Amino acid sequence: MVFHYASPSRQTLPVEDATPDHQVHTPSPASEQTIETSDTAANDPWRCTERSSRSDAAGREVTLQRAGGLLKADVALTTHQGETVVRKDYRLWQRTALAPLARYLMKREARMLQRLSGWAHTPEFKGTDGRYAFYMSRIDGMDLGEARRRSVPVRYSEIQRMVGELHRFHVTHNDLRWTNILVTPEGRLVLIDFASAFHAAPRSPLRPIMNRLRRADMAGTLKFKQKLTGRGLTPTEQRLKTAPRWLSMVRRGWKHQMLPRLKRH
Ligand SMILES: Nc1ncnc2c1ncn2[C@@H]1O[C@H](COP(=O)(O)OP(=O)(O)O)[C@@H](O)[C@H]1O
Ligand SMILES: [Mg+2]
């Protein structure tokens, strides 16, 4: 299904320690644009050929993703204060043992979007809907995986630049993947899904963790390099991509110990 939407213009976010030539893209107001996604759970609504006008979309909700997996949210296109927006909703988990965690994830992501408000590479936060859901601006375009499949030109250096800029706001994303980067028709890249993101102020005692996470984010972008440019990794990049032992252990512990336990509840 294809929806039309005019994206709002954005303001520039002041960057504390940005380089002098730092630039923030201000998207040109678009007239009629579309979005498509390759997220398996989110594909169906977008894949049908029926075209839907903006007023159709304004009148009803369209599911982008159903809360399938553990602590996944329902994501839907909806109307809020007369605007077409996206709602990310963890309500499925209320009255379960995971309710506090669901509320925490929602608050965390909402806070992160507020923190990054004005940056051209995130959706704009549009308010909360109770304790389990929040609204954000809807991004036109397609996700990075879809862009690659359709040979839409995306420069890897732009991804690196965007992630570097995010780090200068003292935020790491921690979940950089093909479905969490959207590409607008003008070629603007937009990061979504900040549920795992992390912030540490410059003089915070958490800075060492932050530095590790920055490195992991940069390493996370390398999987895009190979696929988008066709070029192999340099030895330095290869080293960066190899996760440190402690991180591999944490990941293994999460996957094989914590996750199965949580799923039993
Ligand atoms: N602001 C947005 N604009 C357009 N599509 C979005 C937006 N936020 C999420 N989506 C779509 O919904 C999907 C799921 O959202 P996401 O926040 O990544 O959820 P999850 O945490 O479950 O991965 C995304 O892959 C994307 O296709
Ligand atoms: Mg996601």
Write a concise synopsis of the structure shown.
This protein is an alpha+beta fold. It has eight helices and eleven strands. The chain has one domain (35-232): Transferase(Phosphotransferase), domain 1.
For the record, the count of structural domains works out to 1
Shape: globular
Biggest beta sheet summary:
5 strands, antiparallel
Spans of at least 5 consecutive residues whose pLDDT stays below 50 are 1-58
* Number of helical regions: 8
The CATH first-level class comes to Mainly Alpha
* Spatial extent as radius of gyration: 19 Å
User: In sequence order, what are the helices and strands, one letter per element?
Assistant: EHHEEEHEEEHHEEEEHHH
Instruction: Round the mean pLDDT to the nearest integer and report it.
Output: 80
In the sheet with the most strands, the strands line up as 2-3-4-6-5
Helix-strand makeup class:
alpha+beta
Count of individual beta strands: 11
**Bound chemical compounds:** adenosine-5'-diphosphate, magnesium ion
Going by CATH, the architecture would be Orthogonal Bundle
Q: Indicate the multimeric state.
A: single chain
Q: Portion of residues in helices?
A: 25-40%
Termini gap: 36 Å
Sheet-strand content, in percent, reads 15-25%
CATH topology title: Transferase(Phosphotransferase), domain 1
Protein name: Lipopolysaccharide kinase (Kdo/WaaP) family protein
Keywords: Kinase, Transferase
InterPro entries: Kinase-like_dom_sf, Tyr_kinase_AS
GO molecular function: protein kinase activity
